[in-house]
Amino acid sequence: MNPEQILNALEAFIQTDNLAKKQAVVNQHPELLTKATQEVGQILLEEFENEDERQFITMHLFVLQICQEVGVNVKTAFKLRKQARAVSETAPASQDSPRHIGKRTRQRAKKLISLIRKFIEVDTLDKQKQFVEQNPILLSDEIQTIFDELIQRATDTNEEDVTIHFFRQRKTLLQQCRKYGIETGFSEHSEQIETLLTLDKFISLIHKLDIIDTIHEKKQFVEQNLILLSDELQTIFENLIQLATDANDKDVIRVFRKHKILLQLCREHGIETAFAELREEKRAKTKERGFGE
């Protein structure tokens, strides 16, 4: 998809006024969860001088990045952004009691927490890498300790598992940079994101399969997209169901489980047999409800 099309999709996502509609835009335009969209977003930012408008656009780019990196829906990504900010803003300066640490130590911890918050909100991998290069203190033991505190606080305050996962992901990225160097650390992280982009393609296929009305059309769709019967997809299903479970997204769990079972039947018994069984099952349910013969 060319940059102009991505820009149109991004503007539609930003301008849409509720979360359900924003999710619909992402479902229709999975390219929003790619690096190209983040790059187009930076170009879009250059057109605005008003700081409030720039922050509004940046917020939406950050939400798309969360969807991409963590593998959650739009609603959960917005919630995660809010929770991450809240936890980082109220995190204790140190595990030690304030009576036992000096003023300078508390001030330093406060500055480091502020630095972590800025790092969390950087909206592209390239900018994150640049930010780490400009702030090598992020690779220190102190930062790792503060991340541990953020994770513990999120756990103690019963934040959603996805919030904790997000902090751990950022902590792990910095650990990789500490161990292998910034270039290699971000390269490995980028490869992990490319794997998530593969997930997005599968999610898009499952979404299209889900919204097809008739069994006959569903069968045709599977026949036209035999990749849906691959071993890889069955593994991906398990990961997606776990992510949806962590995010307590019951609707997504239902959709993924339903289609995992259907596609598994197609693999084991063949597409024709699996859909014949689905058709009979649907007829039986209709008859039970008094609408059949």
How is this structure best described in words?
It is a single chain. The chain has helices at residues 3-15, 19-28, 35-45, 51-70, 74-90, 103-121, 125-134, 141-156, 161-180, 182-211, 215-224, 231-246, 250-269, 271-288. The chain has 293 residues and is mainly α. The chain folds into two domains: 3-192, no CATH class; 197-288, no CATH class. The chain is elongated and about 70 Å long.
Total helices: the number is 14
Low-pLDDT runs of 5+ residues are: 92-101
**Globular, elongated, flat, extended or rod-shaped: what is the shape?**
elongated
- Overall helicity: over 70%
Strand content: under 5%
Distance between the termini: 49 Å
The structural class is mainly alpha
Residue-averaged pLDDT? 77
**Major beta sheet summary:** none
**Total number of strands:** 0
Radius of gyration: 23 Å
**Domains (count):** 2
Which series of helices and strands comes N to C? HHHHHHHHHHHHHH
Q: Could you give a quick summary of the protein structure above?
A:
With 293 residues, the chain is an all-alpha fold. The chain contains 14 helices and no strands.
List the helices and strands and how they pair.
Layout: H1 3-15, H2 19-28, H3 35-45, H4 51-70, H5 74-90, H6 103-121, H7 125-134, H8 141-156, H9 161-180, H10 182-211, H11 215-224, H12 231-246, H13 250-269, H14 271-288
Helix pairs in contact: 1-2, 1-3, 3-4, 4-5, 5-6, 5-9, 6-8, 7-10, 8-9, 9-10, 11-14, 12-13, 13-14
Could you list some keywords that capture this structure?
single chain, 293 residues, mainly alpha, 2 domains, 14 helices, 78% helix
